[in-house]
Amino acid sequence: MAEGKIIRSPDIERKNRIPPGQRLTEKWPVLQHGGVPKIDVSKWTFSVWGLLEKERKLSYEEFLALPRVTVLSDVHCVTGWSKLDNTWEGVSTQVIKELAKILPEAKFVIVHAAGGFTTNLSISDFFESDVLLAVKHDGEMLTPEHGYPLRLVVPRLYFWKSAKWVEGVEFTARDRKGFWESRGYHNRGDPWKEERYG
């Protein structure tokens, strides 16, 4: 992956960029279950495990040294707000594919975050060209409220799939519902189909 590559999420090319049932906001609301974790990056690691040829564990410095991309995308929250024209910087999930050497039987990705939070994605959704593990939003490092030190960004799905405070990804043969999905949210979460709840 070329350093500094700019990727435009396909949704920003739509004539109407606001999905059904959504309203536009200029703000970036902060929503989460429970408090904001205090993460010490000197002890933080990013792990990749499961159905792989070789599991990997990276320190914060090692993660920051990976090739970067910039993704331009919209954000659609299941609670009904949409924020257009976001600029994210981080590591494309394609880089994870190169690092991990995933086995063919892997069909799903379970994203693990601080506090025991998880979210589940099909392997195809995880490896879409505009999906990244972000460290910056609109030119600034993520704040703790918005997922510092690392946030998954899945632009084409509702924003709960863009897990905050990511610590690792697990590749599995079978799907396993994440935190919100096991509490009634839709298993996939396509905003254009209004896949809000299961």
Characterization of the model:
There is one protein chain. This protein has 198 residues and is mostly beta strands. The protein has one domain (5-12, 19-24, 40-193): Oxidoreductase, molybdopterin-binding domain (Sulfite Oxidase, Chain A, domain 2, Alpha-Beta Complex), CATH 3.90.420. It is built from three helices and twelve strands, in the order ββββαββαββαββββ. It has helices at 60-64, 93-100, 123-126, and strands at residues 5-8, 23-24, 45-50, 56-59, 69-76, 81-92, 108-113, 118-122, 132-137, 140-141, 151-153, 166-172. Strands 1, 2, 5, 6, 9, 10 and 11 form a seven-stranded mixed beta sheet that branches. The protein has a five-stranded mixed beta sheet with strand order 4-3-12-7-8. Strand 5 and strand 6 form a beta hairpin. The longest helix is centred in the middle third of the chain and has 8 residues, at 93-100.
What's the gist of this structure?
This protein has helices spanning 60-64, 93-100, 123-126; strands at 5-8, 23-24, 45-50, 56-59, 69-76, 81-92, 108-113, 118-122, 132-137, 140-141, 151-153, 166-172. The protein has 198 residues and is mostly beta strands. The model has no long low-confidence stretch (mean pLDDT 94).
List the helices and strands and how they pair.
Layout: E1 5-8, E2 23-24, E3 45-50, E4 56-59, H1 60-64, E5 69-76, E6 81-92, H2 93-100, E7 108-113, E8 118-122, H3 123-126, E9 132-137, E10 140-141, E11 151-153, E12 166-172
Parallel strand pairs: 1-5, 2-6, 3-12
Antiparallel strand pairs: 3-4, 5-6, 6-9, 7-8, 7-12, 9-10, 9-11
